[in-house]
Design brief:
Layout lengths: L2 E4 L2 E4 L4 E7 L9 E6 L6 E6 L5 E3 L7 E6 L4 E6 L8 E7 L3 E2 L3 E6 L1
Parallel strand pairs: 2-11
Antiparallel strand pairs: 1-3, 3-8, 4-5, 4-9, 5-6, 7-8, 9-10, 9-11
Length: 111
């Protein structure tokens, strides 16, 4: 399994970014996929998770601003991030259950 994340970058507060993560393996259609983030000096935290059936779970700090989705045919999970805040600055990692991680993509939100 290889997870390739992309879409990070520098954006001003209030802006939007869309992260993508493609799985080059063969099991993602039946596994949960998600996004976690890790800010400098802090622990990695769950941002959003989506099940194989499309059930979503969000951290409170992104509810109403971020949307996770997946395309099983493309083996890709997306994270649409709107109304970004400086505190959203972090490295974002995609996740495939039970224990696979992408390399991370950096998101920087300037005030």
């Amino acid at each position: 399994v290889q997870l390739q994340a992309s879409g990070g970058g520098l954006v001003q507060a209030g802006g939007s970014l869309r992260l993508s993560c493609e799985d080059s393996g063969v099991i993602s259609s039946i596994n949960n996929m998600g996004w976690y983030r890790q800010a400098p000096g802090k622990q990695r935290k769950m941002v959003a998770v989506i099940s194989s059936g499309g059930t979503t779970t969000y951290a409170d700090f992104v509810k109403g601003r971020f949307t996770i989705s997946r395309d099983n045919a493309k083996k890709t999970v997306y994270l649409q991030m709107n109304s970004l805040k400086p505190e959203d600055t972090a490295v974002y990692y995609c996740y495939l259950s039970p224990c696979f991680w992408g390399q991370g993509t950096e998101v920087t939100v300037s005030s």
